[in-house]
Specification:
Blueprint lengths: L2 H7 L4 H10 L5 H21 L3 H18 L5 H14 L2 H33 L7 H11 L1 H17 L20 H8 L2 H18 L4 H29 L1
Helix pairs in contact: 2-10, 3-6, 3-7, 3-8, 6-7, 7-10, 8-10, 9-11, 10-11
């Protein structure tokens, strides 16, 4: 199977792709090409989104509202100076540059961290004999799903005008409220994330030569624990600020 075949077949027959990765010598193109594509998709998404006047206006209004609440007790002169600096750092070009940098860092961080998680689970729990590079190949090829997610999220944001819009049940709520536990939990159930974790579980199963159920339970369980901890911390911080 060619590299192009692996990148496309990961959507249709991922089991065959991962079996080939397991049985063939290491091929670094299996991870760096998908990650570069993920960086490219993230960069395009950032530049398209932050080129929309309506979205930029929504961001400015949300920023001004938040600053009014945070600077209510600050003297007028200092308040104006803080707002001026905030306007500079929230300018469209800086938003695009920061978003591009964040997309690149996030793509590579996701690759290395998730590859380590797969490798660690395989070594500790399954006593499997595969290298970290093989885990990188599986994680890299699975990154084609987040790449698709970037494109779909961009289209959803352009349609709704809401930068928080994602392919999750939270998009059906009438109001986006980060202080609402229901919103936080529904927003965490992202279709792309669940698909991505499912592929990672399948890849780990193929590398470990184990049934997919146990790797799936490990990855989805870890994801659930981390999200519950994040939601709990977020609600605690909001409570302390109020």
């Amino acid at each position: 199977m060619s590299l192009g075949g692996r990148l496309t077949n990961i959507f249709a027959t991922p089991g065959e792709v991962f079996e080939e990765v397991r049985d063939r010598p290491p091929d670094h193109a299996n991870w760096w090409v998908p990650v570069l594509l993920l960086c490219l998709a993230g960069t395009i998404s950032v530049w398209v989104i932050f080129s929309q006047p309506a979205i930029l206006q929504n961001i400015r209004e949300a920023k001004d509202k938040a600053m009014e609440q945070q600077l209510s007790n600050v003297p007028p002169a200092q308040r104006q100076m803080v707002k001026a600096w905030a306007d500079i750092f929230s300018s469209p070009i800086l938003l695009k540059v920061a978003g591009t940098f964040g997309a690149a860092v996030g793509a590579f961080a996701q690759l290395f961290v998730m590859a380590f998680v797969l490798w660690a689970i395989g070594q500790i729990f399954f006593k499997a004999d595969f290298s970290y590079v093989k885990a990188m190949e599986v994680t890299g090829l699975a990154a084609m799903i987040p790449m698709l997610g970037k494109i779909l999220a961009m289209l959803l944001i352009l349609i709704t005008g809401n930068t928080a819009a994602r392919l999750s049940p939270a998009m059906f709520l009438s109001k986006i409220d980060p202080a609402n536990p229901t919103y936080l939990m529904l927003n965490a159930v992202n279709v792309i994330t669940l698909w991505y974790l499912g592929l990672l579980a399948l890849g780990l199963a193929k590398l470990s030569r184990r049934p997919v159920l146990v790797p799936a339970l490990c990855l989805y369980g870890l994801w659930a624990v981390l999200h519950m901890a994040t939601i709990t911390m977020s609600l605690m911080m909001q409570h302390l600020r109020t």
